[in-house]
Write a structure and sequence with these properties.
There is one protein chain. It is built from 6 helices and 21 strands. The chain is α+β, with helices and mostly antiparallel strands. Strand 11 and strand 12 form a beta hairpin. The structure holds flavin mononucleotide.
C-alpha cells in the first residue's frame, strides 16, 4: 500500500469512535507493563471473551506475545493523562498512576470505568499486529463517563455537557474562541496598541455568513478550516465569563496568514493576553505533539484554568 493510501485508510478507520483502554500484564520479574489501546472489542459472552490488538513494533511485543494473562482497563474521561502516559515512551508508566491487581495479578488502573482481568485464550498473527483474545476471569464496571477517541482526537462528553450548561445560563456572557493550527504553527491576532496576542473569538460559534460569529470572523479573515473540535470550556474567575474554545486546522490559504502564524517552538507566551490562554496553548501543543509524533510529553494537568467543574480541566 502506498503512503497516500495508508494515510487514507488510517483516516477512514479513525472515523469509528472508540473508548480508550490500558492493556497490561507483568513481566518475569513481576513488574507491571502496559500500553494505551483503542483496539479493544467484546468478542463473546459465552464463553466470555474480549480482544485487543498490539502493534508488532511495540516495545513490549515480546512480552505480550507470550503472556499467560493480561488485564484491560477502560479509562474515564478524567483519565486522559493516563492515556498519554501509556502511549508515550517511559521507563515506568505505572509509577505515575494508581493501580491494583485482582485474580491474575495483571495490573488494573484504579478508578477506571470498567476492567477485565483475563487469561490469554489465543494469540492470532494478524498482519502488522498480534490479536490477543482474553478469557475474562474477573471484571467490574462503574457508571463513570468513559474517555472517547475519534479521528485522532480525544472526545470529552463531559466537556460537551459543560458547554451546554454554560450556554443555558443566560446570566453569563459567553466568548467562543479558536486555536487554529497550520503545520505546527498557531494562528494569533495582534493588538498593536497593547503589544499583545490573542486567539480569534466572538460571542457565538455561528456560521460563515454571520460576520459577528466566530466562523464568520474567520471567513472574513480568509481562514478556511477543517472540522472543528471542542477543546476547552472554562470560566474566567474575574468576570465570570464562560469561555468555550474550539481547535481546528487550516484547510487552505495558510500562505496569506503568514504574519499571524507562530511556530510552536517560538511562541512569545508572555505576549498572550491572559494566563488562561497561555495554559491552554501549552496544553494544545503538548497534545498535538503526542498525536503527531508520539514523543514523551509528561502530564498535561499543570493548568490553573478555572474550570466550571473543578474536577476536569479540559
Ligand atoms: C488512543 C490511542 C490508542 C492506541 N491504540 C493502540 C492499540 O490498540 N494497539 C497498539 O499496539 N497501540 C496503540 N496505541 C499506541 C500505543 O499506545 C503506543 O505506541 C505505546 O507507546 C506502545 O507502547 P510500547 O511500545 O512501550 O509497548 C494507541 C495510542 C493511543 C493514543
Amino acid at each position: 500500500m502506498n503512503n497516500n493510501n495508508f494515510a487514507k485508510l488510517r483516516q477512514a478507520l479513525g472515523s469509528f469512535p472508540t473508548g480508550v483502554t490500558v492493556v497490561a500484564c507483568r513481566n518475569s520479574n513481576n513488574e507491571p507493563l502496559g500500553f494505551t489501546a483503542n483496539s479493544f472489542t467484546s468478542v463473546s459472552l459465552d464463553p466470555q471473551l474480549i480482544s485487543i490488538c498490539i502493534d508488532k513494533k511495540s516495545f513490549n511485543i515480546d512480552l505480550f506475545s507470550v503472556t499467560k494473562h493480561f488485564a484491560v482497563s477502560i479509562l474515564s474521561e478524567d483519565q486522559q493523562f493516563i492515556s498519554t502516559i501509556f502511549a508515550t515512551p517511559n521507563e515506568d508508566r505505572f509509577k505515575e498512576v494508581h493501580w491494583e491487581s485482582k485474580q491474575t495479578k495483571s495490573p488494573i488502573i484504579s478508578n477506571s470505568v470498567a476492567w477485565f482481568d483475563c487469561n490469554t485464550e489465543q494469540i492470532i498473527n494478524a498482519g502488522d499486529h498480534l490479536m490477543l483474545i482474553g478469557k475474562v476471569v474477573a471484571f467490574d464496571s462503574s457508571p463513570k463517563t468513559p474517555l472517547m477517541y475519534l479521528r485522532g482526537n480525544y472526545v470529552n462528553l463531559g466537556l460537551e455537557q459543560k458547554m451546554l450548561l454554560a450556554m443555558e445560563n443566560k446570566n453569563t456572557a459567553i466568548i467562543v474562541g479558536a486555536i487554529i493550527e497550520w503545520r505546527k504553527r498557531v494562528f494569533l491576532l495582534e493588538d498593536k496598541e497593547s503589544d499583545s496576542l490573542y486567539f480569534p473569538s466572538a460571542s457565538r460559534l455561528g456560521h460563515i455568513n454571520d460576520s459577528q460569529s466566530l466562523l464568520g470572523k474567520l471567513n472574513n479573515l480568509n481562514i478556511s478550516i477543517n472540522e472543528h473540535y471542542l477543546f476547552s470550556v472554562f470560566e474566567n474567575a474575574e468576570d465570570k465569563t464562560s469561555l468555550i474554545y474550539y481547535r481546528a486546522q487550516v484547510k487552505e490559504g495558510a500562505e496569506a496568514l503568514e504574519e499571524n502564524l507562530y511556530d510552536f517552538d517560538s511562541i512569545p507566551f508572555d505576549k498572550l493576553n491572559d494566563e488562561a490562554s497561555r495554559i491552554m496553548l501549552k496544553r494544545y501543543i503538548k497534545e498535538r505533539e503526542l498525536n503527531a509524533f508520539g514523543i514523551f510529553v509528561g502530564k498535561e494537568s499543570e493548568g490553573k484554568v478555572e474550570a466550571i467543574s473543578k474536577t476536569n480541566q479540559n
